[in-house]
Design a protein that fits this description.
InterPro entries: YcjX-like. The chain is α/β, with parallel strands linked by helices. Helix content is about 40%, strand content about 15%. The protein has two domains: about 230 residues, 3-Layer(aba) Sandwich (Rossmann fold); about 120 residues, no CATH class.
């Protein structure tokens, strides 16, 4: 196992040297990782980003688009033959149909290459002519990102943390009842193991549906081809000494197998090669779910930052330490569910969550930022008469029944600590406000030539993530 680890490190080092030495003689490549937590909208983000980079009429805050430096953008075959292609055309067709629909969420890793022909500025740019910059977008489930934190934990440490986290979450009693009827010191019985794993998976599914962010291990929710395999047939257990052939000893072995055969290959083959990263976060959904969900999001953001190797892709750094992520953006999605007068509050809350996460993760090196966005705008803003005066609302088509409705979610506090303090204090609900969330369907679009789908600050997010490379 040690030899295998050393070999992996040597291989990554050789790949880093090769990339570094060949970079001056090849087109520059940006590998952008896109992930999200609990229905944050990864698929829609990627689809809208690509559409708006190909038709840049709505991208004024992306300087290379506003100045005309981007001459054209086009899709090319992706460089990784073993990864599924992100189904951009199919998703765009769903979002731009006469009766548009939301595409299905991310269930596996996929990739898409968008090539941009860019005219460099300055005298040397005029002499050299346009160059091509490749943007490789890697889409993967957020649950997989949270799994990286398990690499540093033993089965006992993970079990203690998982059992502490379960308390008070949806489905906790049902799982604890199943666990309480089992003696982990008994000889392994596969049916008992499967029942425990099934009950634990049901709890994770209920917690995710209720708005909680950390629902790891991630493959329990998105098993794919691993469904029913021993590597996904374990659950947290109370502390104890478990003998050979016991259920407890087997769960310890399977947890280590999960780290070795599921988490490490993802880190080695995909995650460690990312240059820039955006983490989409449904902050509004967590606020609606209550203080426990906000506190869980706060902890999840710290775990996410801890998973990254911060630093700049300097020449010597890339030779001796491999590629390091340079920029990480935490984007609060669904900003179109709020009137623009509340966007500053949403951004401030996200920034406060990120600031605490950076402190708790002892994180430094990469450039991080937070902002509120909507990759696809689904609402229009209105001001309506109310018993207390004028009320700023958003109007859109409801997902459940297709009817138009005006919506006011409640007033977000101007001081983020009014939300973070009750969350950290373990409160069950907000004392002075009831925050609501409405599920809107995508609006029917009539796009002008040269315009991509309407959005909120997608261009600003793109400027932060890739603007310096264009």
């Amino acid at each position: 196992m040690v030899i295998s680890t050393i070999a992996d490190q040597i291989l990554r080092g050789v790949e880093g040297v090769t990339d570094t030495l060949s970079a001056p003689f090849s087109d520059p490549v940006i590998r952008l990782g896109v992930t999200g937590l609990s229905r944050a909208g990864k698929t829609v983000f990627i689809t809208s980003l690509v559409a708006n980079l190909m038709n840049r009429g709505r991208m004024p805050q992306l300087r290379a688009a506003a100045s005309g430096a981007i001459q054209t953008a086009y899709l090319q075959p992706q460089p990784d033959d073993t990864l599924p292609r992100f189904s951009y055309e199919a998703y765009l067709a769903q979002l731009t149909a006469q009766t548009p629909e939301w595409p299905d969420g991310t269930r596996h890793i996929s990739e898409l290459r968008l090539s941009l022909k860019v005219q460099p500025s300055g005298i040397f740019g005029a002499l050299s002519g346009p160059r091509t910059v490749h943007l490789d977008i890697v889409d993967y489930p957020g649950e997989w990102l949270l799994d990286l934190g398990l690499l540093d934990l033993s089965f006992e440490q993970w079990s203690a943390a998982a059992l502490a986290r379960i308390a008070g979450r949806p489905g906790d009693a049902a799982f604890m009842d199943v666990l309480g009827a089992v003696d982990p010191a008994d000889t392994l019985d596969e049916v008992t193991a499967q029942n425990l794993a099934s009950a634990f998976t049901s709890h994770l599914q209920a917690a995710r549906a209720a708005g909680f962010s950390d629902c790891s291990p991630g493959r329990f929710l998105l098993p794919g081809d691993l469904a029913g395999s021993p590597v996904l047939t374990f659950a947290p257990l109370p502390p104890g000494t478990y003998g050979r052939k016991s259920l407890g000893r087997e769960f310890q072995r399977r947890f280590e197998s999960y780290k070795r055969n599921v988490i490490k290959p993802f880190f080695r083959d995909h995650f460690s090669r990312i240059d820039r990263q955006i983490v989409l976060v449904d902050v509004l959904g967590a606020i609606h779910a209550g203080p426990p969900a906000v506190d869980d999001l706060r902890n999840a953001m710290a775990d996410i930052l801890g998973a990254f190797k911060p630093g700049r892709n300097a020449f010597l750094t890339r030779i001796f330490q491999g590629r390091r992520v340079e920029k990480i953006l935490f984007a609060a999605t669904k900003a179109d569910h709020l009137h623009h007068t509340q966007h500053n509050q949403l951004t401030a809350i996200t920034e406060a969550l990120l600031r605490e996460a950076k402190d708790r993760a002892d994180f430094a090196g990469a450039q991080t930022a937070a902002m509120s966005i909507a990759a696809l705008r689904t609402t229009v803003e209105e001001t309506v008469d109310h018993v207390d005066g004028k009320l700023n609302v958003v109007r859109g088509r409801l997902l459940d029944n297709g009817k138009q409705a005006a919506f006011y979610p409640g007033a977000l506090p101007t001081d983020p600590q009014h939300l973070l303090a009750p969350a950290k204090a373990g409160k069950d609900k907000w004392l002075d406000q009831d925050y609501q969330v409405m599920r809107f369907a995508p609006a029917a679009l009539t796009l002008k030539p040269g315009d991509g789908p309407p959005h909120i600050r997608l261009d600003k997010a793109a400027e932060f993530l890739i603007g310096d490379k264009l």
